[in-house]
Design a protein that fits this description.
- The chain is of the alpha+beta class.
- The protein has one domain (2-70): Arc Repressor Mutant, subunit A (Orthogonal Bundle), CATH 1.10.10.10.
- It has helices at 2-12, 17-24, 28-41; strands at 14-16, 44-48, 66-70.
- A three-stranded antiparallel β-sheet has the order 1-3-2.
- The longest helix has 14 residues, at 28-41.
- The radius of gyration is 14 Å and the shape is elongated.
Length: 74
């Protein structure tokens, strides 16, 4: 499973956690520890992009998407 995750990220260069969860039919929370192995080894980078509606209120709870990026120097 770890190799399949790595190969998928390498193939597409950058994928979201939600995309991985859909592709592998696994809950995103279950995928994160597996992806952390690749992140800790330096083969994959994790990036969270803060998005919002740009309104002043800041009252909504917009989900911050998490992306995994293939580290090309590996």
């Amino acid at each position: 499973m770890l190799i399949q995750l790595y190969d998928f990220i390498k193939k597409f260069n950058m994928v979201s956690l939600d995309q991985l969860a859909r592709e592998f039919k696994i809950d995103a929370r279950a995928l994160e520890p597996m992806l952390d192995i690749w992140v800790n080894k330096g083969f994959v980078k994790r990036q969270a992009k803060k998005l919002g509606c740009k309104k002043v209120c800041s009252g909504c709870s917009v989900k911050t998407p998490v992306y995994y990026i293939f580290a090309k120097n590996c």
